[in-house]
């Protein structure tokens, strides 16, 4: 018979008080204690929060945080803030201090051109997110009748404009207009019929001691089709926002092509590098193609025949060639699919400064019925006063002597003023003269206007002075006109 092990008979009371059961009992008691303690802790916290002193303290802390965020937003999105002039600009120059040739290709990394691209993208991104940089506060200069300008039937509040080169590809128009009401006109481009890369990098060089730049971009362009799509999208967004159709916007006599009241948009056009300057029919076709695709989105079309970075382009400034080209562009502009047709302006070179050069260009302008002349583009000359400061670095000396391209900056001002005066006298009152080159102050603008310029354009000054550049110039102009210094 199998052996059956008997289990001892354990009293019920003993099993209830077994060690395992005791542990459970203790754990339950502990949870109850913790729950009680937690409730008491929560009650204590709530009590402390409701105390008058703590309410005041928390209110102060919360208010400080909100106030700091609000102040930071207002400060950093205000173009008048010194941070944009004295921190952002030097920081970008320091971060992008290379030569725009990748290190793996033997270069020093991102440089001036990259800094330019990053700056524009940041400006655009902030605008799209609703944090667009703008000039806050009073704008007393807008009320000054002496600063106002009548241009092609539009009443502009100031004579200030951004020249081409800053927004080459029609991608940052509204963010740039937004930075200051002092900007009455923006010139975008240069835009060519077909996309082209431009010259090899590096092609933009800084001379910071003299606030100058040398560039040899060579009309790098997204092409007329892409630019036209971007410009058309602006019109469509504007129409949607204001309950209009695209056609109504284009046919309005009240809405400028800029889509900003009392402000104008100029589109600079040029020929492709592959188009030989000796083939005038092909050259005219390039410019006319740009007019047909871009003219409806422009208040002004700027014919660039003066860039030093496209081989043979400046030869188009000869009288016969220029008047043939300009006449073709004016004719095409008159057929633009827009009720208010764009005016045609030509941009000339500061290096075409001989007596016969000025006379021939002026004669071609009159013959073709061109509305204005922009004086002038960058120069291939190298004035030695760029190196006058003892603080000029060896790299700046190397760039000055070795790098080819067009020089821009304050050193151009004397030549700009001289040519403005000469063209004004040669062309008379029927043709508008624009001053472009070397402008860095309100005093410079007023001097250019005294010499005959109606509109004064800047670009390099903004590169070195930051986004508050045009607002500061407008304020300085008003101060001088009011009798200050």
TrEMBL record:
Entry-linked Gene3D superfamilies: Aldolase class I
Highest taxon above the source species: Eukaryota
GO biological process, one term: 'de novo' pyrimidine nucleobase biosynthetic process
Annotated SUPFAM superfamilies: FMN-linked oxidoreductases
This protein's GO CC annotations: mitochondrial inner membrane
Keywords: Flavoprotein, FMN, Membrane, Oxidoreductase
Segments forming domain Dihydroorotate dehydrogenase catalytic: 147-481
Known pathway: Pyrimidine metabolism; UMP biosynthesis via de novo pathway
NCBIfam families: pyrD_sub2 (TIGR01036)
Protein name: FMN-linked oxidoreductase
């Amino acid at each position: 018979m199998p052996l059956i092990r008997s289990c001892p008979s354990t009293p019920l009371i003993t099993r209830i008080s077994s060690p395992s059961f005791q542990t459970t009992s203790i754990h339950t008691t502990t949870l109850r204690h913790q729950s009680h303690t937690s409730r008491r802790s929560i009650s204590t916290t709530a009590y402390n929060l409701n105390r008058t002193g703590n309410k005041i303290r928390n209110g102060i802390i919360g208010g400080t945080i909100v106030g700091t965020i609000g102040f930071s937003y207002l400060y950093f999105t205000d173009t008048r803030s010194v941070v944009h002039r004295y921190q952002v600009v030097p920081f970008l120059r320091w971060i992008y201090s290379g030569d725009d040739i990748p290190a793996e290709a033997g270069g020093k990394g991102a440089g001036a051109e990259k800094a330019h691209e990053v700056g524009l993208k940041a400006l655009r991104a902030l605008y799209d997110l609703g944090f667009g940089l703008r000039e806050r506060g009073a704008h007393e200069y807008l009320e000054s009748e002496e600063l106002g300008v009548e241009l092609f039937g539009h009443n502009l509040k100031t004579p200030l404009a951004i020249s081409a080169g800053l927004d080459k590809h029609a991608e940052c128009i509204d963010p740039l207009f937004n930075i200051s009401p002092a900007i009455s006109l923006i010139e975008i481009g240069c835009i060519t019929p077909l996309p082209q890369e431009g010259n090899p990098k590096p092609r933009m060089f800084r001379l910071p001691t003299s606030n100058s730049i040398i560039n040899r971009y060579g009309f790098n362009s997204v092409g007329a089709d892409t630019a036209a799509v971007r410009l058309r999208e602006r019109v469509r967004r504007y129409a949607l926002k204001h309950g209009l159709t695209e056609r109504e916007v284009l046919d309005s006599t009240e809405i400028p092509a800029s889509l900003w009241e009392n402000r104008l948009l100029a589109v600079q056009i040029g020929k492709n590098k592959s188009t030989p300057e000796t083939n005038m029919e092909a050259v005219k076709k390039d410019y006319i193609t740009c007019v047909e695709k871009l003219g409806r989105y422009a208040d002004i079309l700027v014919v660039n025949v003066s860039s030093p970075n496209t081989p043979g382009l400046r030869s188009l400034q000869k009288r016969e060639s220029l008047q043939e080209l300009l006449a073709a562009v004016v004719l095409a502009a008159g057929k633009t699919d827009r009720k208010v047709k764009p005016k045609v302006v030509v941009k000339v070179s500061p290096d075409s400064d001989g007596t016969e050069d000025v006379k021939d260009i002026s004669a071609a302008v009159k013959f073709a019925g061109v509305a204005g002349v922009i004086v002038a583009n960058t120069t291939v000359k190298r004035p030695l006063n760029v190196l006058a400061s003892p603080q000029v670095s060896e790299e700046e000396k190397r760039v000055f002597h070795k790098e080819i391209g067009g020089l821009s900056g304050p050193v151009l001002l004397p030549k700009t003023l001289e040519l403005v005066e000469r063209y004004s006298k040669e062309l008379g009152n029927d043709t508008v003269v624009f001053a472009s080159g070397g402008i860095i102050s309100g005093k410079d603008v007023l001097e250019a206007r005294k010499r005959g310029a109606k509109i004064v354009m800047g670009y390099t000054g903004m590169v070195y002075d930051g986004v508050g550049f045009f607002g500061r110039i407008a304020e300085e102009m008003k101060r001088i006109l009011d009798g200050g210094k």
